[in-house]
Amino acid sequence: xxxxxxxxxxxxxxxxxxxxxxxxxxxxxxxxxxxxxxxxxxxxxxxxxxxxxxxxxxxxxxxxxxxxxxxxxxxxxxxxxxxxxxxxxxxxxxxxxxxxxxxxxxxxxxxxxxxxxxxxxxxxxxxxxxxxxxxxxxxxxxxxxxxxxxxxxxxxxxxxxxxxxxxxxxxxxxx
Length: 175
Known about the structure:
By secondary structure, this protein is α+β, with helices and mostly antiparallel strands. 34% of the residues lie in helices and 21% in strands.
């Protein structure tokens, strides 16, 4: 004797329960993802920028001497002054505590800004140009800045830029 099984409307197949559970899981995970993005955006907009917390290029641009001029005609920078002492007998190298100050590096095409303000002489420009260097400064250009002829060291590698997929800005690459 064969039995017939009939399905009642209240009976649900096991496939329906697992499908509903999968959709629920997907919606919960999507909600958590969106919530995480929202919290991340809220955290990044409330981040305090202070000299103890240099976290962005924008902060360095804002603290550069003459920030508008620096960003328009060069690049904001951090100047690092340090002193090294070398003893020969016995041979040792000693490093003093470095000081870090905001600075600016000018593109070679914008040296006229310094010449017009009589901050560098034509001899200094000629000497700096002969060595294929550029000028950098710290301090406000209106009140006796410290200006130096600096050399762009292409041998120094920026390992942050050598990561796969990193985009190297071409505009500020060569000064």
